[in-house]
């Protein structure tokens, strides 16, 4: 024989409507107070745009001036040497020159960083000379 449990099921009455409305209002208020903290951006990383402009100006000056007689895609060896002989040597463009039309991103990045450091050094030296 199967025993049937005849215990009474307890049914809880539904929560009053005002409690549900109050709970929803509180949740909305909490979200509104936390939202600005979640959306707020961190401090912007400031890029040195003037340094980038000076670097690009040097490149363009060499591409159009000293190396203007070369085809643009094939003149990177000439341009890098014109922009900075020291950085041209440091990025080993003199030891292992690029072939015509070749792009070596690693050396290009190294060259750009070197030239930008050189520009910063020149700016610093010019400021120091003005202070004297």
Q: Which shape, going by the Cα principal axes?
A: elongated
| Poorly predicted tracts of residues | none
Radius of gyration: 34 Å
Number of helices: 5
| Structural class computed from helices and strand pairing | mainly alpha
| Number of separate strands | 0
Proportion of helical residues: 55-70%
Largest sheet: none
Q: Mean pLDDT, rounded to whole units? A: 82
Order of helices and strands: HHHHH
Q: What is the CA–CA distance across the termini?
A: 109 Å
Write the layout of secondary structure elements.
Layout: H1 17-39, H2 49-64, H3 76-83, H4 85-90, H5 105-131
Helix pairs in contact: 2-3, 2-5
Please give a structural write-up.
The structure is a single chain. This protein is mainly α. Helices cover 61% and strands 0% of the residues. It is built from 5 helices and no strands. Helix 2 crosses helix 3 and helix 2 (49-64) packs across helix 5 (105-131). The longest helix has 27 residues, at 105-131. The protein is elongated. The termini are far apart. The relative contact order is 0.08. The model has no long low-confidence stretch (mean pLDDT 82).
